[in-house]
Design goal:
The complex is a heterodimer of chains A (225) and B (233).
Chain A (H helix, E strand, L loop, with lengths): L1 H20 L1 H20 L4 H24 L4 H5 L3 H6 L4 H30 L8 H26 L5 H12 L1 H16 L3 H26 L6
Helix pairs in contact in A: 1-6, 2-3, 2-6, 3-6, 3-7, 3-9, 6-7, 7-8, 7-9, 7-10, 9-10
Chain B lengths: L5 H25 L13 H28 L2 H33 L7 H21 L4 H33 L14 H47 L1
Classes of the chains: A mainly alpha (225), B mainly alpha (233).
Chain lengths: 225, 233
């Protein structure tokens, strides 16, 4: 119980900070809009192409936006010299990780909640009837992205050239999430039966489970001094 | 940790390479030619051992990183650092050899097949690992962070391999990739085995050489810091 209260406190601190400053959300939201605009200018898509490319474009937008936001995961602590406070606080490392993870997930999901409908409208997709399923896939993919992002940003925030190092480390590692999420999204958008993409959902769940364990464990080594 | 000291091991592996590598090459060049692929198939005798060594290095890196986080002894970290650099070189060799073979046999330099994609990502992880180390100044923090990245990365490589394999096999049957001759005759298998052993021994020679180099580099760096402190005082 104490564990979850500590995690909640860490997450709430981030949410409150974000509610007052609105920096991360604004930056991520406009960045995701810009990515959608860039797709429109660089790829001139017709109706049939849109359907086959939309899942990939959606996940590229989510990944780039997520990487932009996640890289700043521990920046507030760093800039205000609060890393030591966080490390010295008498709570398990796992609780700090869970709190930061929850905060990161919420920020990305908040952006997605606005960008996803815009994406569907801008690319004329007919998925309103299956929006619940689509959200489920988006949540699973975002969880994988946030897990790796929280672990790696705790590391890169303490490194020189973190703007370079964070994408370099996270992008190769999220490939399985991208493959699973894109294929499942494509299945949902085409209106396939559940059985036809259930294995991609399973891949996403398996990745989330494996990396929950690996990230919790790895994180305990990152805040030692 | 070792029965002998590093330089002794390095010499043993060095002489092993000098004997095994030419023997393997001789056997590979005198082995019967492949009935379908002609002389191009001989690239296999270098390509397969380099790919094997690249993956073997990944396992060694994983093991060394786990041992470092568990025991916190500097030599495990030095071994991990040395392994990553050599692993990256063998990964590049495997990718290059595969491409040179792929052009005449498949008709393309590159295809997004599971094994190729996973190998390319393996290279990215080695490079990311080495870059992260280069950007960290505190040696203890460098060792700790690098170990976490190595472990997470090496857990991810098989997942990447299987997810790409799954994705490709479900969506398009391999069209450029003909399945290889399923079972290899002994005259071809034997040179391949000798070459694989030779590459593994060569990997260890490089590993022990590089570990000594890294130890000396770290010693020099520590002394430089000590001198700098003295000058400041």
């Amino acid at each position: 119980m104490r564990f979850f209260r500590a995690a909640y406190a860490v997450a709430w601190k981030d949410v409150l900070l974000e509610l007052r400053r609105k920096e991360t959300f604004t930056a991520m939201f406009f960045f995701s809009l810009l990515v959608l605009l860039m797709f429109n200018f660089t790829l001139s898509l017709d109706r049939t192409q849109v359907l086959s490319l939309a899942p990939g474009l959606l996940w590229l937008a989510i990944t780039f936006t997520g990487v932009l936001g996640l890289g700043k995961g521990f920046l507030a602590e760093r800039e205000n010299e609060c890393m030591d406070g966080l490390i010295l606080s008498p709570v398990p490392r796992g609780a700090i990780f869970l709190g930061k993870l929850a905060g990161n997930f919420l920020f990305i999901f908040a952006v997605e909640a606005v960008t996803l409908p815009l994406f569907v409208v801008l690319f004329n997709l007919d998925v309103w009837g299956r929006i619940g399923l689509l959200l489920f896939v988006v949540i699973l993919g975002t969880a994988g992205l946030s897990l790796l992002g929280t672990l790696l940003s705790a590391m890169t925030v303490q490194v020189r050239a973190r703007e370079v190092m964070f994408p370099l480390l996270i992008l190769p590692l999220v490939i399985p999430v991208l493959i699973g999420a894109v294929q499942a999204t494509a299945g949902v958008m085409r209106g396939d039966g559940w059985a036809e993409y259930a294995h991609w959902i399973r891949l996403l769940v398996a990745f989330d489970v494996v990396f929950s364990v690996a990230s919790f464990w790895g994180f305990s080594f990152l805040l030692e001094d | 940790m070792f029965l002998f000291k590093l330089p002794t091991w390095q010499r043993i592996m060095g002489w092993g390479t000098v004997v095994l590598l030419p023997t393997g090459l001789f056997l590979a060049l005198t082995a019967p030619p492949d009935a379908f692929q002609g002389p191009a198939a001989r690239i296999m005798y270098v390509h397969v051992p380099s790919a094997w060594t690249a993956m073997f290095a990944g396992v060694v890196l994983f093991f060394n990183s786990v041992m470092y986080l568990w025991r916190r002894h500097k030599s495990w970290d030095t071994a991990a650092h040395a392994t990553a650099g050599i692993g990256a070189v063998f990964t590049v060799l495997a990718l290059l050899g595969g491409s040179i073979w792929g052009k005449p046999i498949w008709g393309v330099w590159w295809t997004w097949d599971a094994r190729l994609t996973a190998t390319a990502v393996l290279l990215m992880i080695y490079v990311g690992y080495l870059m992260l180390r280069a950007f960290l100044d505190d040696p203890e923090k460098e060792a700790r962070f690098a170990a976490v990245v190595a472990i997470v990365g090496m857990i991810d490589v098989p997942i990447i391999h299987f997810s790409v394999k799954w994705w490709r096999t479900l969506h398009q049957a391999p069209s450029v990739m003909k399945p290889d001759v399923p079972s290899m005759p002994f005259e071809m298998l034997f040179p391949l085995l000798v070459m694989t052993v030779a590459f593994t021994v060569f990997f260890h020679y490089l590993l022990f050489l590089r570990m000594q180099l890294l130890q000396k580099e770290k010693l020099i760096e520590a002394q430089r810091q000590a001198v700098l402190r003295e000058v400041q005082l």
